[in-house]
Amino acid sequence: MKTIIIPTDFSSNSETALNFGMVIARQQQAQLILLHTFELPYSAGAVPFEVLQTEKEEYLKKGHQQLEQLGRKIEHAGGLKYSYIIEEGMPADCIIETARKRNADLIIMGSKGKTNVGNVLFGSVTTAVIEKADCPVLAIPEGTKISKPIKQVAYATNFLSSDLSAINTLVKVAVPMDASITILHVDGDEDHPENAVKKMNEYMNRLTKAFGFNRFSFEILNGDDVESELRKYVSDGKTDMLVVSTRYRNFFGRLLGESVTKQLAGKLTVPMIAFHYHKETPLKVF
Predict the structure, then answer these.
(1) How many CB atoms lie within 10 A of CB 146?
(2) Got the DSSP string for 177-207?
(3) Which of 136, 112, 104 is nearest to 245 (CA)?
(4) Structural fold of domain 3-140
(5) Domain range annotation of the chain
């Protein structure tokens, strides 16, 4: 892992995302790129060009000042490489495009909060980035604390070959953190539960041999609703981080969006990584 993009709106939630990014960057010896985006609150035709230019200059000046403050925080931590960028435009589009141009390995962003300019909800931006980004996205739900290290990671799988590349990357993240990885599968076949057990055993053997990682565990959750079972698993405190592919992007939309009930949102205070789902990979599992 070489490059990590940290979009920031200077809210407390995006600062938490930066704190996560600093930890991971130190472990991976990666470079941090801070990205701040802004949109002018009115269209070009609505006001004179001089007014637009003045407003833009003010946003740029304020953005640079705030990014410099974050930079001093990173410098104070020591041993981290970073740079920062300011872009004008739709937040999600700017984040996705910047990640592509910089060949980012990971995007880390807060999942909710309001920007200082444009009054944009970060929740909708996060779900849009998860939907379209080429690289993994680590979403930090509002209220997430980093008071304890990430020691237990859960990856939801349907025994897909495309999961292998994601798990391979996940292993590289887990090793420096000294974390364990639980491979989860939600099975709704009450009549033939042995089928899921057989597939899980085969998957377990292949993963263990493929990655040489000795801290895998494997668990089958019984239930018809994948999303509900994953939410319950998280809310029961069984993992410090949940990992899914964008095959479950609708789950992410509800989980991170405004439709989540206050009770559920209060329990889902663990970071979550979404890996981009690819229909085909050259590596076959079964």
Answers:
(1) 13
(2) HT-EEEEEEEE--SS-HHHHHHHHHHHHHHH
(3) 136
(4) Rossmann fold (3.40.50)
(5) 3-140, 152-275
Q: Does 152-275 match 3-140 at the fold level?
A: yes
**Cα gap 98→8, rounded to integer Å:** 13
CATH class of domain segment(s) 152-275: alpha beta
Which amino acid type is present at position 180? Answer: S
Could you read off the pLDDT of 146-172 as tens digits, one per residue? 656 788 999 988 887 778 888 888 887
Taking CA atoms, 242 is separated from 56, 77, 190, in Å, by: 39, 27, 25
62: alpha, beta or left, given left = phi > 0 and alpha = psi -120 to 50? alpha
Between CA 26 and CA 106 the distance in angstroms is 14
**CA dihedral over 103, 106, 112, 113, signed as positive or negative:** negative
pLDDT tens digit sequence for 119-136: 343 467 887 888 788 888
Residue 34: closest CA among 2, 61, 9:
9
